[in-house]
Amino acid sequence: MPRFDDLSNYVRGWLIGDFEPSLLRVKDFEICITQHSAGEFSQPHYHKESTEINVVSDGEIEVNGRRLSKGGIFVYEAFEVSDVKFITDTSLVVIRFPSSPFDKVEV
């Protein structure tokens, strides 16, 4: 029998990783499905240990001055500063590895 759940049961869309609640607690990677509103800004930040892969599943964003839309992918390596503005309502799929929930450094 399949297991059923809802994205609203997870903190800001983080589903898998070394944190609770999670669908699967693992240290190797994290997966997030997140939504952002038009006009929203992400606080510029970087990660000291992890690499972050982002896939725009819907919407339009500006990433470090470059516009991306549905299907666009951007990757931040450790110590690269993330600077994101949400042009329209946007959905992202985020994969980060390794899972390190306290690795975020705001600038």
User: How far is it from the N-terminal to the C-terminal residue, by CA?
Assistant: 46 Å
CATH superfamily of the domain at 33-106: Jelly Rolls
Low-confidence stretches: none
Instruction: Report on the biggest sheet.
Output: 5 strands, antiparallel
Task: Report the CATH C-level class of the domain at 33-106.
Answer: Mainly Beta
N-to-C SSE series?
A: EEEEEEEEEE
| Rg result | 14 Å
User: Residue share in helices?
Assistant: under 10%
CATH topology tier name of the domain at 33-106: Jelly Rolls
Oligomer: single chain
The secondary-structure class comes to mainly beta
Strand content: 35-45%
Query: What is the averaged pLDDT score?
Result: 96
Task: Give an overview in words.
This protein is mainly beta. The chain has a domain at 33-106: Jelly Rolls (Sandwich), CATH 2.60.120.10. Helix content is 0%, strand content 44%. It contains no helices and 10 strands. It has a 5-stranded antiparallel β-sheet with strand order 1-2-9-4-7, with no helix packed on it. The protein has a 3-stranded antiparallel β-sheet with strand order 6-5-8, with no helix packed on it. It is globular and about 45 Å long.
Features:
single chain; 107 residues; mainly beta; Jelly Rolls; 5-stranded antiparallel beta sheet; 3-stranded antiparallel beta sheet; 0% helix
